[in-house]
Amino acid sequence: AALLRKGSTNSARGADRFVADALITARKAGASGVLVLRADSAFYGHDVIAAALITVPGRLARSARRLTLHLPCGWPWQTSWEQLATAANSPPLAA
């Protein structure tokens, strides 16, 4: 059964969920390794990129102006995630 998203063909409405569901379905069907997403310009938004690139099973807590990500105990990619977060939030290297 095919699932079609609502909205016109050039609309990004629901695109993030559509992409996330497609990636989950591909993994359940046995796809492994790097998955390539090919999409038109309507899908080039922050929500779609976030759904396609990063999925973290954590809880985001907010206190005052600070966000804290609580990762599950024993999560196998915790070290890699912390390195990525540190690199993404640090100032760029001098040229």
Descriptive tags:
36% helix, 95 residues, alpha+beta, two-stranded antiparallel ribbon
Structural description of this entry:
The chain is α+β, with helices and mostly antiparallel strands and 95 residues long. Helix content is 36%, strand content 11%. The protein contains three helices and two strands; from the N terminus they run ααββα. It has a two-stranded antiparallel sheet. β1 and β2 (66-70) form a beta hairpin. α1 (15-28) runs parallel beside α2. The longest helix has 14 residues, at 15-28.
The strand line-up of the biggest sheet is 1-2
Overall number of strands: 2
Morphology: globular
Radius of gyration from the alpha-carbon trace, in angstroms:
17 Å
- Tell me the major beta sheet: 2 strands, antiparallel
Our measurement of the CA-to-CA distance between the termini, rounded to an integer number of angstroms, reads: 53 Å
Q: Please mark out the parts with pLDDT under 50 across 5 or more consecutive residues, or reply none.
A: none
Assembly state (oligomeric):
single chain
Q: What is the structural class?
A: alpha+beta
Helix run count: 3
> What is the chain-wise order of helices and strands?
HHEEH
Give average pLDDT, whole number: 77
Q: Beta-sheet strand percentage?
A: 5-15%
Secondary structure: helix percent = 25-40%
Give a concise summary.
This protein is an alpha+beta fold. It has helices at 15-28, 46-53, 78-89; strands at 59-63, 66-70.
